[in-house]
Amino acid sequence: MKFRLICVGRLAEDWLKQGAAEYLGRLKRHYAVEIIELKEEQGSQKDVVTLLRREGQRILQRIPSDAFTLVLDEKGKPSSSEALAKQLQAAMLHGARDWCLVIGGPYGLDDAVRQRADQLLSLSKMTLTHQMARVLLLEQLYRSGTIIRNEPYHNR
Questions:
Q1: Domains by residue range for the chain, with CATH
Q2: Whether pTM exceeds 0.85
């Protein structure tokens, strides 16, 4: 199984880069992982719809047609770590498709990306930056793997 993270924007702060690198390194011990960073569209806040449409088109071009696509979205369904691990384990046991995970930019996502999703996931009811969402998603994927392997990281 392979994870492909499609992220709009780069990590700007060193502490975010370090956190993402830490969990990416841990995750890569057990899974193939590819991170695709797409450039944020530049323009006026007045034209957010156009910016999102352009970003959305570039995101959709990078999603493999056969991948299970999980899109992070504030309107998505929340999940527990255990539930995400259970979903991942079931996918792995049943000849899993690769997972494509999408994180939009500072203005969110175009509706076309949401419509392409197999699942919309919310990491929190709180608003998070798209950069923080990447670190949290990598940590949750790593945590899911430790739950599946009964490793002590999860502490339950």
A1: 2-154 (3.40.1280.10)
A2: yes
